[in-house]
Amino acid sequence: REAQADPARAEWTPEEHQRISDALAIKLPSEAIATRAGQGGKHFSYIEFWKVIERTNQIFGFDGWSSTIMDMAQEYLDFKDGRTSVGYTVLMRVTLKNGAFHEDVGFGSMEKQTDRGKAIENAKKEAVSDAT
């Protein structure tokens, strides 16, 4: 029996490949980098999730990539004095239209929140954006 081509998988044309290579070689402008305070008085640089999505769409096209949550696990869930603390890990896969993919792990947490549902929701969202 002959092997069937994956209809969802498409190779880049030489022109697309060159355009993508050129776009990836462009350094991010400084205004695309955000910072936040971390533990021990340190500051961390990161790219906001919506900017990652926007830039990925610009480079690969809205239909040139996809992301899939491969696994999500609750690492802890604590209730104390009417407040919720929760942490999640996520294994995320980002796949390009040619089948190339990258997987990474992200972590998200919310500490001492009064709204249990919002704490869980926000911790999950943070884990997904951290993994992507």
3D structure, described in words:
This protein has three helices and five strands; from the N terminus they run αββαβββα. Strand 1 and strand 2 form a beta hairpin. Helix content is 30%, strand content 39%. Residues 1-5 have low confidence and may be disordered. By secondary structure, the chain is α+β, with helices and mostly antiparallel strands. The chain has helices at residues 14-25, 49-60, 116-131; strands spanning 34-37, 43-46, 65-80, 83-96, 101-113. The protein has a three-stranded antiparallel β-sheet. It has a two-stranded antiparallel sheet with strand order 1-2. The longest helix has 16 residues, at 116-131.
Distance between the termini: 38 Å
**How much helix is in the residues?**
25-40%
Shape: elongated
The H/E string reads HEEHEEEH
Strand content: 35-45%
As a whole number of angstroms, the C-alpha radius of gyration is 19 Å
What's the helix and strand layout?
Elements: H1 14-25, E1 34-37, E2 43-46, H2 49-60, E3 65-80, E4 83-96, E5 101-113, H3 116-131
Antiparallel strand pairs: 1-2, 3-4, 4-5
Brief descriptors of the model:
132 residues, alpha+beta, three-stranded antiparallel β-sheet, 3 helices
Structure in a nutshell:
The protein is of the alpha+beta class and 132 residues long. Helix content is 30%, strand content 39%. The strands form two sheets. It has a three-stranded antiparallel beta sheet with strand order 3-4-5.
